[in-house]
Each structure stands twice: as C-alpha cells, then as structure tokens.
Design a protein that fits this description.
Layout: H1 2-18, H2 28-49, H3 52-60, H4 68-85, H5 89-109, H6 122-129, H7 143-153, H8 166-172
Helix pairs in contact: 1-2, 1-5, 2-4, 3-5, 4-5
C-alpha cells in the first residue's frame, strides 16, 4: 500500500521534480521520498484529528489545494526539501503546489497507481498509519503501532505516555 502511494507520487512528480532543472538529478528520488513522507504523515494527522470527511469533501468539490490539511502537508514538504536539499523557496513552492494536491486527490478519489479507479485503499492506508484504528484492527497491527511498540522498547517513548509519536520526536531535539 505504501509502495502504491510512492508510485502515485513518482507519477505525479515526474514533471515537477524529475524534469525540473532546479532540482539536481541526484536529489530527484529523495525529493519524491520527502513527498511520500509528508503525505503519509499528513494523512495520519488528518485521521488522528478526525478531519478525513472535510478532506474528502474538498477533494470531491475540486478544492483540495485550498484545504488546510493539504496546505499543511505542502508546507511541511516545502520546508523539508528546502532544508535538506537546498532547493529555493520559489521552486519548493511550485513543486509542492504541483505534487501534493494531485497526490492527495488521487488517494482520496480512490485512483490506483496507473490512474485507474478503485486501485487505492485509503481506509487501509489510514488504518496502517493509525495502528488499524480505521479498519477496526488491533491497535498494534498497523505501521504506527509497530513503530510505537518497537520504539518504546528502545527507550524512544520520551514523554512516557506509552507510545512513540511526534511528541516524543520533539523531545529528542
């Protein structure tokens, strides 16, 4: 499922990233991975905040780019690629504007990696992010639950709340 999401990002980012002279070729794959990370984390935050319906409605109405969650994901992605790869603000902004809303729209609309209908399982992705919560699964069955479980065993639960999450990451730095 995460691989399928990355394929969508690769397709959506071809022109904005790979064919962009402002992005050094050696960074193309890494920039696309940053988009993947931003989308996965952003959708996880949307799921955790209970705002999935608002995101779905904005995509269905054709206004994904103006949704606050999509804007936040885009801003996080922009900041990341500017910091990690030295991409200037204008280029980072145009890449984010071209890639993030398109990817979110494809994911929400249920389009597969080939652009066909019904190939992407948003519920499964969100369930994987939240430990199976959206699909009624075991709390530790999804990616988030597995990371949290492993991370707490290695002492990464810095705020001692029983899970490893962004709050723990913030306390590490």
């Amino acid at each position: 499922m995460f691989d399928e999401l990355f394929k969508i990002i690769q397709q959506s980012g071809q022109q904005a990233v790979v064919d962009n002279d402002q992005v050094p070729n050696e960074h193309n794959e890494d920039v696309l991975r940053e988009a993947h990370t931003a989308v996965v984390n952003g959708l996880g935050n949307v799921q955790a905040s209970g705002k999935v319906d608002g995101l779905v409605n904005s995509v269905q109405s054709g206004s994904a780019q103006s949704n606050p969650a999509v804007q936040q994901i885009s801003n996080n992605f922009m900041g990341s690629i500017m910091q990690k790869f030295g991409i200037n603000a204008s280029t980072a902004s145009s890449i984010a504007a071209a890639v993030i809303p398109m990817v979110i729209s494809k994911v929400i609309a249920g389009r597969g990696a080939q652009g066909g209908a019904g190939g992407f399982d948003l519920g499964g992705l969100l369930g994987g992010l939240t430990g199976g919560a959206s699909t009624g699964g075991n709390q530790n069955s999804g990616l988030g639950g597995q990371i949290s479980s492993i991370g707490s065993k290695f002492g990464l639960d810095k705020d001692k709340d029983g899970d490893v999450d962004l709050n723990d990451l913030k306390k590490m730095f």
